[in-house]
């Protein structure tokens, strides 16, 4: 089982999603204590400093291969490090939390669509499972009220959040095939380095505001360390491994469990309630992920014949 790349890739995707889900708890604790883009820049800086402690010798050795793979690395740094958090932050200024949540869970759909556009045929079970999990995610963030979804009014922020969701899907696609001789540590180091450089204009814009400040406290320090080590280093490394071993489509399906896991962490660490809505959405999300993993009848028959 542990030698099966698809199983291990799915496990890595689940661990990544758990770490990213914990970020919502940390974000709630850090609200008003540190500007969001500054937190984003510091988390990636912490990750880069740690990477430099052990990844530079391998990077130097693998640089000839990395140079040939530089365009996908730059695209990954731009979409994942530079643009994702600023787009979410700018989107939040002109749209509702419900809209943000609903649009953010469309990333797996875009992964499947982009995969299909690139000529990678997607099994019917993937489309069915993807739809079921999407319904479960929408049901959760809408708190079980269909009227909230039907009454949505779209704004500029929705377009920005949609761009962030598509950007994350693009990131997941460009790193699905890693050249031989190139390690995940080298990719992550270069991705974070160039992503941080491209993030500097956004950081300068944020600090140009007169009311920006940092409240140095234990919560802020913990937020920087957790997001830097857990969310930016370990989680992205695991996500890259999951893309390599399980593929972006399967990893994207597990990404649907993020709203559910966030609710579980909120229950244990913030005292937030879990009710019937969370249970129903959980069944739909997990059921959709399981359904998407079912082998097609033709492929199953061929496997049994061999």
TrEMBL record:
The keyword NADP does not apply. GO terms for cellular component: plasma membrane. It comes from the Bacteria. Residues 8-140, 157-293 form the EamA domain. It holds the Pfam family EamA. It is found in: Cell membrane. This is DMT family transporter. It comes from Desulfolutivibrio sulfodismutans.
């Amino acid at each position: 089982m542990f030698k099966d790349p698809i199983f291990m890739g799915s496990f890595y995707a689940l661990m990544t999603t758990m770490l990213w889900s914990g970020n919502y708890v940390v974000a709630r604790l850090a609200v008003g204590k540190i500007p969001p883009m500054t937190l984003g820049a510091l988390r990636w800086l912490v990750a880069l400093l740690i990477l430099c402690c052990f990844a530079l010798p391998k990077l130097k050795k693998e640089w000839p291969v990395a140079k040939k793979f530089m365009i996908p690395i730059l695209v990954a740094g731009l979409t994942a490090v530079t643009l994702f958090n600023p787009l979410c932050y700018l989107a939040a200024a002109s749209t509702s939390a419900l809209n943000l949540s609903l649009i953010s869970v469309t990333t797996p759909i875009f992964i499947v669509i982009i995969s299909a556009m690139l000529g990678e045929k997607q099994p019917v079970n993937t489309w069915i499972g993807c739809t079921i999990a999407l319904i479960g995610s929408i049901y959760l963030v809408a708190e079980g009220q269909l009227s909230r979804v039907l009454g949505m009014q779209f704004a500029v922020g929705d377009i920005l959040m949609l761009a962030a969701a598509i950007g994350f899907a693009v990131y997941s696609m460009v790193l699905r095939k890693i050249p031989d001789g190139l390690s995940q540590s080298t990719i992550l180091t270069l991705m974070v380095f160039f992503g941080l450089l491209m993030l500097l204009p956004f950081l300068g814009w944020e600090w140009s505001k007169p009311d920006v400040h940092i409240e140095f406290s234990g919560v802020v320090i913990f937020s920087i360390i957790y997001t830097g080590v857990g969310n930016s280093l370990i989680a992205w490394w695991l996500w890259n491994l999951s893309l390599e071993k399980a593929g972006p489509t399967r990893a994207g399906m597990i990404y649907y469990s993020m709203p559910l896991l966030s609710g579980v962490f909120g229950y244990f660490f913030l005292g937030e309630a879990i009710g019937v809505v969370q249970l129903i959405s959980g069944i739909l999300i997990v059921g959709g992920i399981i359904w998407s993993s079912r082998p097609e009848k033709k492929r199953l028959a061929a496997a049994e014949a061999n």
